[in-house]
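In this supplementary section we document a worked example of the pipeline. Step one takes a protein sequence of length 322 as its only input; no multiple sequence alignment statistics are reported here. Step two produces a three-dimensional model, which step three serialises into structure tokens for compact storage. The input and output of this example are shown verbatim.
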Amino acid sequence: MNTDSPAITETRVTDLPRLYATLTKARLSTLVVITTAVGFIMASDQQVDWLRLLWTVVGTMACALSANALNQVFETHRDKLMDRTRNRPTPSGALSTRHAFIFAVLIGYGGLLMLALLVNLGAAGLALLTILLYLLGYTPLKPISTLNTIVGAVVGAIPPLIGWIAVRNDLGIHAWILGGILFVWQLPHFLSLAWLYREQYAGAGFKMLPVVKGGLNLTAEVTLLTALLLIPLGLAATLSGMAGIAYAAISLLLGLGFSWYAFRFFMKRDRPSARATFLFSLLYLPVLLAALVGDRSIITDGELITVDMNPDAIIQPSIDNE
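The serialised model returned by step three reads:
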């Protein structure tokens, strides 16, 4: 590409850390690390293996950074068409697509190698699946079908499963509840954002739900339904014995709050209500995950042990095995 050549000479070495951070969406990838760590901690016994947790989150982070960077490389031509994305490193020419591609492949390979050698093959396999789904499913579907949002939500639901399998080497019902919460949360989160930027998505040729015929109304409806679905899903963590009553109360309040904002968006269908729904989604997830970790129950073989808000304070088993 002709636009690549000037970037090689104009970009200074001191600019690379900032450009790499933008290329890999480093701040967004922090969410992946958080959900992976939550999955790891929730799957752990009384003693968390902190060194193994470190390898798990660093390896997963590297894979997430790689997937984000590769996605930007493949979408460079479309990103040039959107005001929100045209200043990213590859569409702006600050980094050549070749440079960005090699960097992304190297960090992805390093992340997968770290997970395979220092954690387990299950974690590495799920991380590889995340990258492949993102690049071979989500990215090519964006200009073709609104199903890209579903595939993207599946990708975002895998990180807590990586954390879980890193500890237990298998996936049980509790892991799927965690993944389910992440999957459903992403739908009202992203749809409210897509509603705000629908003109730019349409101009770039992306088939997001608010862009298609009848999509504006359908987006508001799906946002409300999925926000409501988070209420029983959040409570499922307590019903399954993974968390306690304090978490359940916080989860219920968060779910009701999210549903209220989604209901206002459903009724008004304007930019302020869409923005408010999106912003509340940013509050919902970290508070929910903090409550989940703070009020977790340790899952051992046939026994649930409730953990106080102080992770070191172990209370008595809630189920008698005798």
